[in-house]
Automatic annotation (TrEMBL):
Pfam families for this protein: DUF3237 (PF11578)
Name assigned to this protein: Uncharacterized protein
Length: 165
């Protein structure tokens, strides 16, 4: 006993644009910035905070480690809820580079939707909207997979859960 549990909270779907390759950094990582022009953040049925939001701005600063086995992800976005409230949505995480993921990252026509399990993140919310303030006082984690829409186009779908002590 004593371990935290997870409460399903949100499904997030982000559609990144083509990455901007910043290049190899001095510590050996390769930085690529993926603009995120669109996406949605929606509450799971029964979750007490009602989000039905559209992403209005965002970017993922993705760092491929020198060994090319993992990608460190750092997403920062702004979303607008159905009631007009704005909030910042961000996460940092780790993505294991697998054989099924490489065709997606390279834009191969052979790319296929991945399963969940190799992408995890710590999710944060920030807002000035009183109705959404409980988001700032909770801990959230996510697990993601990649949904292929066509050659070079995909959505990152994340299932976000609240950590319950």
């Amino acid at each position: 006993m004593g371990f935290a549990t997870l409460e399903p909270a949100f499904t997030v779907r982000l559609q990144p644009d083509v990455g901007l390759n910043v290049g190899k950094l001095s510590q050996g990582d390769t930085l690529t910035v993926f603009p995120i022009p669109s996406g949605t953040i929606k509450s799971e049925p029964g979750f007490p905070i009602d989000l039905d939001a559209e992403v209005v701005h965002g970017a993922d600063y993705a760092r491929m480690e020198a060994g090319q086995t993992h990608l460190q992800i750092n997403v920062n976005a702004v979303a607008k809820n159905k009631d007009g409230s704005l909030f910042a949505y961000s996460y940092k995480g780790m993505l294991e580079i697998t054989q099924e993921l490489m065709p997606i990252l390279t834009g191969s026509p052979d790319a296929k939707t991945t399963s969940y399990g190799n992408a995890v993140s710590h999710v944060r919310f920030e807002t000035g909207a009183e109705s959404l303030k409980p988001l700032e006082h909770s801990i959230f984690v996510g697990t993601a997979h990649f949904v292929v829409l066509g050659p070079g186009k995909f959505i990152v779908e994340t299932k976000v859960s609240k950590v319950v002590g």
